[in-house]
Amino acid sequence: MNVQFINPFLDSFLNVIGTMATITLTPGKPMLKEDELAKGDVSGLIGMVGEQAKGSLSLTFEKRLALKVMENMLGEAPNSIDEEVTDMVGELTNMVSGGAKKSLGEQGFEFDMATPVVVAGPEHHISHVSSGKKIIIPFNSLYGRAFIEICFEE
Amino acid sequence: MNVQFINPFLDSFLNVIGTMATITLTPGKPMLKEDELAKGDVSGLIGMVGEQAKGSLSLTFEKRLALKVMENMLGEAPNSIDEEVTDMVGELTNMVSGGAKKSLGEQGFEFDMATPVVVAGPEHHISHVSSGKKIIIPFNSLYGRAFIEICFEE
């Protein structure tokens, strides 16, 4: 996977969470996912299909951070990951992938997105099944961690 | 979502599990997913993008059934959902969606598939985020339950 694919997702995630929830995420170093695992409590996943490549994106949040994003966006948040929270994570997934799609399209790399799927469950982990490289980017915040994982195969 | 989209996924799932793992799954009635939730311990998810529609598919297995599929396919199985099991669920997801794609293509409904993503975690649940109808099909077996969920939006 070309490194030029990574930054649009990273930038779009920082932008969406910063703008919508006024939460500053601090990105760690992007890593090739080998033994590294993103663990979290709620994840948004979306498939991407283009002429040049196809792949998948996941955004994984620890529960505390997901609830804080919800609180900042809507003024209040439930105590647990309920349907309102999974809907919000689905929308964030659309927004992050949409932002990256726009930016990558300007670089001549076009793809279409499938519809998002959200997974909720304590400490689940995600495996992207692909022959392509898997990139994981950890993010820290005052309210817990998040992870982006991106995988494209050509 | 047109009902003609459902049977190819159902048939493909029965066929893949029957052929690869010699396990007979008994399908329940397909239902519109409203309050109904598929809960399981390992799920394969894949995005689909076509000119007429886009959507998502998930296959969710209870742990005992996933390990039995593994044992029947490979002669042995671990005690927990490890990387070998998630890889197998990713492959099954490719096979089931590939079978349905072939069958739907013969009916003039073409789509491309993204790469699959597998989620592992005890009793997680899945939400397909889409304006389209969500269909859930439960399956019973001697070794536990599985669920297909399909969602397309036009």
TrEMBL record, chains A, B:
Pfam families referenced in this protein's UniProt entry, alphabetically: CheX
Entries under PANTHER family matching the protein: CHEY-P PHOSPHATASE CHEX
Protein name: Chemotaxis protein CheX
UniProt keyword list: Chemotaxis
Keyword field contains Metal-binding: no
Stored InterPro entries: CheC-like_sf (IPR028976), CheX-like (IPR038756), CheX-like_dom (IPR028051)
Annotated source species: Shewanella submarina
SUPFAM superfamilies attached to this UniProt entry: CheC-like
Residue ranges annotated for the Chemotaxis phosphatase CheX-like domain, each copy included: 42-140
